[in-house]
Amino acid sequence: MTGNHRDKTISRRRALAVTGGTVAAGGLVAAGFQSAFADTADTTADADATASASSTGSECMTLMTSVTEGPYYLDGALVRKDITEGKAGVPLTLRLTVVDATDGCTPVKGAAVEIWHCDAWGYYSGYTTANPGGSAPAESEEGDSANDQTYLRGYQVANANGVVKFETIFPGWYTPRTCHIHVKVHTGGEKEDGTYEGGKVNYTGQLFFADDIAEEIFTLDPYSKHTGSYTVLADDMVYDGGGATSGLLTLKAVHKKDPSKGYKGSLTLGVDPDAESTGAGSGGGGTPPSDAPTGTPPSDSPSPSASASS
Question: Which one, out of 156, 261, 262, 298, has a CA that is 20 to 30 A from the CA of 252?
Fold first, then answer.
């Protein structure tokens, strides 16, 4: 590990439970998003066509196996593309394609993809006092305007090509997990009051990042303020080493020589639209400390920073 993360001694076998300048960083995010998302509007059609072509090719990918939803799930996430709410970090453009792995990998139009992940210091919205392990500033010290019940959570509904897109930040980490994003694929429901209601969950999974990229990101501000033992992919309790079919993202740097400008991540999710996932799949994920707050995001109108968007 580079920078402040040299100690790799904690592995999934030894870690038994989850323990629970801002101005400069904000500038990094603002500049980074301009670079990472500058071509989004102009290249949407081409990207969707490429995603559709790759998902309907002669070789259909393996059905992805559901894993645990983990201890930090909350109902009521907003339907929106940008889930950052001003959270500081390296920009990440996420493009996911949902296909029916039981029917030639045809796109699943209208599938609702839900994601959630921790911030740069390892904190989840709804659980902002849960200790991420190692040494990290309190979540409140970041000084952002994010809603503590909704940041870094959201839904998007797949287009005709099965594609959804999110604008977020590169996640941090917490003990004893590697860097990851949680994901669920829903079908049969509908958008209502800014969120997604009804239907069923077809797939519960997690998205993962190559160790070398994650380690480089974690030397940057604000990630570098969280020090301690980071769990690499090989030692993670959930990732099983299966590559893309196990959730490993394909990542492309916006600027190869400057990782702070952000990354574009992509993955095809092969699901069975007739199946139902309980969220209790393989893998642990740890348990939040007993003093961690729980609850559901407010049902009334969100703050401007947490407004829903298509």
Answer: 156
